[in-house]
Design a protein that fits this description.
Elements lengths: L6 H24 L6 H14 L16 E5 L2 E3 L14 E10 L2 E10 L6 H19 L7 H14 L4 E2 L2 E2 L4 E2 L5 E3 L6 E5 L18 E4 L2 E3 L5 E3 L6 E3 L5 E3 L2 E6 L2 E4 L7 H6 L11
Antiparallel strand pairs: 1-3, 2-13, 3-4, 5-6, 7-11, 8-9, 8-10, 10-15, 11-14, 12-13, 15-16
The structure holds magnesium ion.
Length: 283
């Protein structure tokens, strides 16, 4: 069953979303060479406490931290620790969430540690982020869930193939083992949102006002396949290629999509794509 929210409930989810946005801002500043992933977790923990919110990651299925820190070939679910020290040239995907009055927010971004990143890494993150926005822009009243999947996959497939200098690497790997999800009174709810179109899945539910989704493409410079390390959490690409992860929680309203975890509600980016974001209920 898909949980449909009232406008008042969406306003609560917006509060949670803004806490997540604050975690993003603080961890982005802290993700510098020499920092450990545990340092970033500590930053996130403090932001949640300062807002009087709760963590939805800590203790989720036994997860031992407040954020996921996924460095380089780690796709998602990396566990912050003391021994992972960020280096110049690394990329890190930070996935964070928060709960306010029982309502959840969840969002992720990829950051560049230090400077001097290869053009293909900058392009990888750009393609992943833009595919997320293409998915968000496809969240229209009357459309179907599959239209979001189609927009994400279509965006990635229309891009020039990744290359190192003149050497083409082949297609981007759209990670298939993980995807987006409904969100509300729990972090992960129905429906599951694929980042590609599967004939087996059908068109999925109709997109109606009150539907809230976490839209989160994960893309690698090589394989779409992943494996989980012995810690039972850390997900890596099977070929060791580096990957990017971007995510926003989005509410569909009568007035269009509201990007709950973006400071401006998605207004600026959606306008570029010809979509009017719903007004911010807290503004
Ligand atoms: Mg998520």
């Amino acid at each position: 069953m898909v949980q449909i929210k009232t406008p008042e409930q969406i306003a609560k989810m917006r509060e949670a979303g803004l806490v997540v946005a604050a975690i993003h801002a603080a961890t982005r500043e802290a993700a510098v060479p020499g920092a450990t992933t545990r340092d970033l977790d500590e930053v996130a923990r403090k932001v949640i406490a300062d807002h009087g919110a709760k963590s939805n990651f800590l203790g989720y299925g036994g997860f031992p931290a407040t954020i996921c820190t996924s460095v380089n070939e780690v796709v998602v679910h990396g566990i912050p620790d003391d021994k992972t020290v960020l280096k110049d040239g690394d990329i890190i995907s930070i996935d964070a969430g928060a709960i306010v009055d029982g309502w959840h927010g969840d969002a992720a971004y990829t950051a560049f540690v230090g400077s001097g990143h290869a053009p293909e890494l900058i392009e990888l993150s750009r393609v992943t982020e833009e595919s997320m926005w293409a998915g968000i822009a496809a969240m229209r009243l009357g459309a179907r869930l599959v239209d979001i999947s189609k927009a994400i996959e279509g965006y990635i497939k229309r891009q020039p193939r990744p290359a190192v200098g003149d050497h083409s690497l082949g297609r981007y790997g759209i990670i298939e083992d993980y995807g987006g999800h409904g969100i509300g009174t729990e972090m992960h709810m129905d429906p599951h949102l694929l980042n590609y179109v599967s004939r087996k899945r059908g068109k999925g539910p109709k997109l109606v006002p009150g539907l809230c989704l976490a839209i989160e493409p994960m893309v690698s410079l090589g394989t779409p396949r992943t494996e989980v390390l012995a810690d039972d959490w850390t997900v890596i690409t099977t070929d060791g290629t580096w990957s990017s992860h971007w995510e926003h929680s989005v509410a569909l309203t009568e007035e269009g999509p509201l990007v709950l975890t973006a400071v401006d509600g998605g207004k600026a980016k959606l306008a570029e794509l010809g979509v009017t974001a719903a007004p911010d209920p807290l503004a």
